[in-house]
Amino acid sequence: MLELTDRHYRYFARLLTKRTLLYTEMVTTGAILHNKPEKFLEYNEVEHPVALQLAGCNPKDLAQCAKIGEDFGYDEINLNCGCPSERVQSGSFGACLMREANLVAECVAAMQSAVKIPVSVKTRIGIDKDDSWEFFLNFVEKINCKYIIVHARKAWLKGLSPKENRTVPPLNYETVFKLKEMHSDWKIVLNGGVKNLDEAKAILKKADGVMIGRAACETPWILANADSEIYGEKLDAKSRDEILEKFLPYAKLQIEKGVPPSFLRKPLMGLFHGMPGAKKYRESISTLSFR
Question: pTM of the predicted model, to two decimals?
Answer without folding.
Answer: 0.93
